[in-house]
Amino acid sequence: MVKSKVINESAYISELAIHGMQEKKGNDLVRLDLRNINSSVADYFVICHADSATQVKAIANSVEEEIYKAMQAEPWRKEGLEYGEWILLDYVDVVIHIFRTDKREFYGVEDLWGDAEIKSYKSA
To answer: Which H or E run contains 48?
Structure first.
């Protein structure tokens, strides 16, 4: 019973992150469902990119605001805010990656988790 509540909560956080990305026009939004992968570090990865460091930072702020408004939750850890090339927001069961376009192509996070179920979302 507790496990399904945790999964539902992580799914909800991932949907809030998608909404925050859409609000600031993130590109190529995807959610990787990692729950059925034994070695996964989280339930979901949510990924998008933007063409400038300014937009990457704006998307990260929007995602944080959406999740905080709905759940009063802060990220457990944040990385990359200084340069805005790859910002990571870690909500433990949901890890959000916001890349500058060239960095997303270079790191290929989706390729590293090729066994994940991938769902694409439209930008707003």
So the answer is: strand 44-50
114 vs 103 pLDDT, higher one: 103
DSSP 66: H
Tens digits of residue pLDDT in 18-74: 999 999 999 999 999 999 888 888 999 999 999 999 999 999 999 999 999 999 999
Q: Is the pTM for the entire model greater than 0.70?
A: yes
What per-residue string of b and e applies to 12-50 under the rule 16 or more CB within 10 Å gives b? Answer: ebbbbbbbbbbbbebebbbbbbbeeeeebebbbbbbbbb
Assess if CATH 3.40.50.740 describes domain 9-114.
no
The domain segmentation of the chain, as residue ranges, is 9-114
Distance CA 102, CA 93 (A): 26
**Ordered alpha helix ranges (H), 24-100:** 53-71
78 contacts: CB under 8 Å, gap ≥ 6: 60, 87, 88, 89, 90
